[in-house]
Protein 1
Amino acid sequence: MTDAAEAEQPEKPAASKPAPRTRAASTSTAATSGKPMVAEPSPAAPKTPRKSAVRKKSTTSAGIAKPPAPREVVLVLRDLSKRFGETVAVDHMSLSVPVGSIFGIVGPNGAGKTTTLSMATGLLRPDGGSIVVHGADVWKDPVVAKRNMGVLPDRLRLFDRLTGGQLLYYAGTLRGLDAATVRRRSADLASAFGLEDALNRLVADYSAGMTKKVALACAMIHSPRVLILDEPFESVDPVSAANIIEILQNYAGAGGTVVLSSHSMDLIQRICDFVAIVVSGSILASGTMDEVRGVGSLEEKFVELAGGRRTAEGMEWLHSFSD
């Protein structure tokens, strides 16, 4: 009986201690005796410093200008080369374009910009090197690679005996879109580019700027991962150019990538995240806009690398007039 009485005594404190359980639910697992209940708060103390340490790390990483993890690359040119007879158009060029960026390619006339973009899009076969778009080789797996691209080539020839609406429908169905999707996207693109009133007119009757806009709309209709645009703002008025810039910036902001060439240094400097300066088929400078232009403007850096300005001499005859 004395042993039974001693066994019953611990049951009374256990029944009288539900109150501490309501104060801290975590102490219920250690309620086998009275003393551990008192020592239970001590393991909870280190939890607060751990949380604050994690926050400090995230704050530190957020303050770093260049994150340690490299950005994903969507377009890679490796050791690309092209000759036309004795002329070297592209001389072992290598370039990587990050996802979600607007990448500008600038250079003087005849520098190899159009040749490079033509090879990158599969329109011109290189003599050497490789091009990879979103993991697919342009020449070994062209169907997959070209599905991921939207292209606006130089001196593009359109089916100008079609209306603007018919041309967009043709471009969409060629990319495998169903009729309803093509019509919906055509309407969206026409509205964005200000072509609503021109969709029923023949493309042959379009101005140079309108032709450029409908060609850009055709390049975008299938929502590609990469847009490769050769001189997209040529012959485009300032209002339309501003609309196109906004469309491209929103596209890049959503994870798309734009590669474009232009002779407008101011435009490239304003809208591009990365830039490459190409001279005589070689890249002389490449990187972020700030890295390439340095303390001056992009135009100043371009003139410096391209050989500087030439002084016009020996043209005094131009100062006297023929009449």
Protein 2
Amino acid sequence: MEFLLNLGYIVIAIALIITSSNVFISSASKVAVILNVPSIIIGTLLIGFGNALPELAISITSALNDCTRLAIGNAYGSNLVNSGLVLGLISIISPIAVHSLLLKREIPWLFISMLLATVAVSNGELSRTESAVLLTLCIIYIITSVNTGIEEANSGEDEKQKAKKGELLLQTVITFAGLIVLSLSSKLFIYGAVNIARLLEISELVIGITIIAFGTSVPELFSSIIAVRRKENDLAIGNLIGSNIFNLLGVIGIAGVISPSVVENDVLCRDAFVAAVMTLFLFVCTCSKKITRINGIILVLMYAVYITYMICNVIIR
């Protein structure tokens, strides 16, 4: 009975997380349009960051409850879901042409993020200093992304719509309301997940990499599918890459700053390794200027093998 109750908490929390994330992205985008912010920022920075908010909220909540390992597992797990399952599925639905100069900037950032996050946990401990470095780089990434967006935006294109102050106020209130619901629902999610982990005697890291990672990556899945169907390929890939960068720098960084933690060896030998392989494969795909259906199938199979190994490992234990 206790198991089903906590499972119900998780289901409700996932629904609230997805809903509040969508509300945030929608209302924040409207605020950006009202304020005449270049659309490129909305696509590559705002949506990518918005979709990473569930992971960020769960990271903060986990750290405050001395479950930093859960935040680390969630960050790597979400990246694996994004790079393997989400990118694989949207590539199978529709092959993605890679032609944006923006990706030439984002891919190096992704590699740097992956490298530094791996180095940070390589000694078996995530210190506050290492976490502060990751968080600082996350802030630098945000600033440079905004600057790049402004530089590449067409200054000749003006937004035709000029909203009234009342509309701006309304959308701002809705944006903050979405963030509040997101924070509360993520706390409920952590409560249920940690209780189930304890009931089943399963590592919090495993729970973070599987159930929580998939649940918080659902917004990326839906938004990417919508973007691809609308022929916004750069938006779809940029969304996933931006979300992965935020996970590695922001999610892990803020969790470690709040609560430094010992890191399980599996993070480096298993999770970081698989994430690095997927990132390298993504780099090869982007170099060929197209992510084909075959590439998508390979990514999904890589993720399937990883999850199968995780499940079998839990069963054996």
Protein 3
Amino acid sequence: MSRGISVILIVFLTGLASAQVVSVRPAPQISMPAHTVDGNSPGVWQGDRLNVYTSTGTPSSMNGPGIFDLSVGAPPIVNSKVHFPMWIESVWRDDDGLTYGWYHHEAPVCGKLNSPEIGALVSSDGGHTFDDLGIVLSSGDGVNCGAQNGFFAGGHGDFSVILDRKREYFYFVFTNYAGPALNQGIAMARMPFPDRANPKGAVRKLHQGQWEQPGVGGAVTPIFPAHVPWERSNADSFWGPAIHWNTAIDRYVVLLNRACCKTNWPQEGIYISFSADLSDPSGWVTPAKILDDSQIGFAPGYYPQVFGVDPGDTDTIAGQTPRLFIKGVSRWELFFDIAADRDPEEEPDPGDPGDGSDGNRGLDQPYSDGETAFR
């Protein structure tokens, strides 16, 4: 990539015009040393060592003094194989030293098709061995064995987890592949922080603006609905959200894949969205494209995520210039900033972007390539 690509989101805070700015910049390539990266690759600090997990149905690990100097480590041991194949996609270390993890499990249901579900883990030895705490998120809709996307017949999966800044809830941002078309796309759930050691039955899904549906079997309302449902061969939807808190702009940031519009999920591009408050589902802005598939340089260009570059940074907390990874390869950095004190008369009003929608994407509005929320 010869140059950065910039998009600007216009928002108004406390009556003043301000903007979250993100630029994609070329950077020297670094690659995660795992043989294959097949999902979100979460990281957690254990003392002065960064442990990063990735999975191909069986979890593996990497570790080192930072994201720029990782080596392949011993694979973590999960004490039960009931939920294999397993992809560990999020981890978090507690103040008492326990390490919690969350995984994507694929259950075969229709020949070559699977129905994913999401479960929880805990480790008491620094992430070397994990106990399976069971499934905490699964679809209440039946599988569709006629699905033509090439992989899934339904289910919940391809996700990430983050603890909110008040340490009240763990928020799950996941992909719903099941049920009526209007319910498919990127969905959310949350679990009270005190329930982290006993998560079964504690997770509640977002549905119609309320966090009340049970994690196992409950209904969802997506924050970013699919344009074309997943059972169609030409499915058009975001998937695989990777969320982090960005300290430079004081916002939650989510990166998204977009599958469009043929079978086997061809990557259309990498998208970004922001939110100031995870408890408010209407606060997410319309996702905007930051990289086209043609600019990635390899295929499939799945699994975008950031990794912060400062001590203590991970895939869920990062500063102004984190590295952007796609399928374990980073050829880019992101630059986050706030442009404040703009003259509102010189900027488009996010309350009236001129397309009949509001500046922030409501639950019933389609996503775009950024023309409403970004310029």
Protein 4
Amino acid sequence: MKITLKAGLIIGLIFYSFLAYSCTREADDHQKGSNDTIPSGTDPSYNLNLKDIVMRDPFVFVDTIAKKYYIHASSGDNQSFTVYESKDLAKWKCLGKSFIASQTFWGKSDFWAPDLFEYSGKYYMIATFSAPGYHRGCSILVSDTPEGPYEPLTNKPITPKNWGCLDGTLVIDSGQPYLLYCHEWLETIDGQVCLQKLTPDLTATVGDPVVLFNASSASWVGDISSGAVTGKVTDAPFIYRVSAKEVYMIWSSFAKKDGKYSIGLARSTSGSIFGPWVQSATPLNDDDGGHAMFFRDLDGYLKISYHAPNTYPTYVCIYDVDIFEGAVTIIK
């Protein structure tokens, strides 16, 4: 099935503008201070219900020290990210802008998919940007606190300069940091998921990227079209290690059966993040949702976060996940 992306891009501009507007009042309240001892269910400053948050690519960061959750999102202005905070995953509040690009920052558009990690005492955000004269690429931002403000670690893409890349995320394996990202299907036709070693300070890559798999390695993936290009998408790879010998990756594409945006599951048969990766025959969901990640909540329960549906309005979805004898199930 072929699906046009033109309508999706227009819709994205509309709902990101809505996000920027809806956050203004809550950000003003945050500047006045808040009472962190009040549960979010009774604290009136947490005035956003999860089911009402219109957002793409929700990456949930769990702050085990402050006992809070954070999601950063595009502000829709091709200039900034906005941050949301919760104490219980049900009620949220907007804290305002977490990153505002300076005029000298290389990225001038997109501002997609900010993923957040704690590493070596700092907080690092990896997001996707574009600009005239550049290929689409991922950059790393840094802050002293999970809510920000963030600034560029280096003022350039961390992904290969001659590749169109997106949806970068951080993987720490045996103490070594890696960058996991997608080589865009618009260039490769058959989208790729790639892994590349990072320096300990995350300022540069080491060696060449390793292609872990192509979109066509999953039998459930179909074609989409954008302009004159038709191919298979890889989006949003995320690695989750269950044990020393069990490593899973979730990623997103469009299903051959019905064209829905879907979450794929791959398993490393060696226990190594380099694979080989074996794809599940069917996606994990059928609600036209994707760009997913796993996390454990403050009580230790495994959760999945993603957006659905893939057309406006698209909402944050957070569900329990069960992993039993190799089977992964989203519990709604």
